[in-house]
Amino acid sequence: MREPSIAVVVPNRNDARYLPRCLSSILDQEVKPEELIVVDDQSTDDSVAIIRSLIVDNPRAQLVVNPLNLGTNGALNEGLRRVQSEYVLFLAANDFVLPGIFARAKACLARSPGVGLWSALAWLVDEEDRPIRLHLSPVVALKDALFTPEHCVKLAHRFGSWLTGGTIIYHRDALRTAGGFDPAYGGLSDLITALVVASQHGAAYSPEPFAAIRVHSNSFLSSTLTDVARLETMLKRLGERGPQMSPQLFGASFLDRTALRFRFAAVRASGGAAISEISARTAGWRRLALLIADRLVPAVLRTTRVALAFLILRPFDVLPTLWNRLLGCTAVWLRLRLRGRAPPS
After folding, report:
1. Burial class (CB in 10 A: 0-12, 13-18, 19+), 126
2. Would you list the domain boundaries of the chain?
3. How many CB atoms lie within 10 A of CB 171?
4. What is the pTM of this model?
5. Is domain 6-213 annotated with CATH 3.40.1160.10?
6. pLDDT of res. 345
7. Is there a contact between 247 and 262 (Cβ–Cβ < 8 Å)?
């Protein structure tokens, strides 16, 4: 089995504070990636100087300074354009990877040559690197697994986003064929692209955390979700372009569920404040139920409002959330404790 080559692309704009942890987590791995491409997107802090100092003696690493501000997805695509390796991981500059990620990914990908991507689990950490909890991604297997494109379509229908950003290592050519990351989808672009690639080329999966995702205010994803009007424009675009990108994935039922999942994500991102605005975008009994919840539950009861919105918008996700997310992540956490695998610090 031939192990594939892996590149890492790190887009950065004004994240100088987090760059040392991010880049050292890549460069200090026992099994290293073949390439590290840091794309600075017109930072106004001292990011460029920090990047240069951290990669100065590393022939695997290069810095790309965009002459114009391209935005996060533009920076990702610029990095993708320069990748020479067979596979590529895109890592936000404020996140970091954990020891063993490239060794495990290469071993899994070697057993399934040509597969569209590999994904694992991740920890959530705060702005001071303190661990919060496991990211509640669906646990879709309890050991390393390979899923066919058909199985990936079923997983997407059942769970929506079942792949964990920060750990997704894409087949470079499959990602390029899918069109890279569409800036029109904002912070949801990587989620959509990953589902498309998996639906066409299959996916490998490891049920262990190999990255740390930082929870912080004003993230790229939260800024996307809190703009409800823009979110509806994205959903319309997805309804038109999705069947062209992956007809086996973007059927009517999946598009309906995706709209409901994204609308709930907007409610959650707003702490329940967006219920009224989302109700106006919803039809039938769901619209009435959201209006009632909005009127009866005070704004200060944020958790209650979000929980009610989940039950109204996503009743089909209740069992998968309890079984594959909550119980699945609990099982993974217990196994890590038994093995002495502490969360990152």
Report:
1. exposed
2. 6-213, 226-313
3. 24
4. 0.96
5. no
6. 82
7. no
